[in-house]
Amino acid sequence: MEMSERKQERNRVIAQAMSDIASVMDKGPSLENLEAGKAHLIALAARDDLFTFEDFPLPQDDAMECSYLIHEAPDGGYALYVNSGAPHQYYAPHDHGVARAIIAGVRGRERHQLYLRRGPDEPGEGPLVKKGEVVVAAGEAATMQPDGIHEVNAMDGKPLLHLHLYAKNFVLQGERWKYDLDRGEAEPFHLNELGSITDAR
Ligand SMILES: [Fe+2]
After folding, report:
1. Residue 101 belongs to domain with CATH number
2. By CB distance 3.0 to 4.6 Å, which of 74, 84, 156, 166 could disulfide with 99?
């Protein structure tokens, strides 16, 4: 398939998948609806012929990743990005504002350590409580609820290419926080800390 033909086919299956995802996630923020959206995104990510490093190149410099916007609703909702990440990609724990998120794997493996903010009455030290760990790879996805926090790293010393869906685009996610686990501190996360975002729709 030629590149332009592939893009046409990709946009067709993305539009179908995003319509399916919006119809289940619009029903509300329940875990059940998020899991239904996750199944649709995993099915889209299975089309690895449409999500290649040729079409979504890795950083050419020492940046950790390149992001490509491939779908967004007219109101800025349901923003879908391809993330092409270098082998050294690492993000300290951070939230996505109040946006629900689904990250589905296409190529390579990415560890997501999941946290919640420690409540005032919860025992232990530091701002976060670890809740689990998911390895995102082909056929697998991680989900985040509005209060979710994740710490992300590429695995195996290899690059990765994954689909990141946020119920709101990066601009609409609003106030976000990142956490320094060594110093036990939370600080604001600024949009300019993200690598390049290319509109690839
Ligand atoms: Fe994130």
Report:
1. 2.60.120.10
2. 166
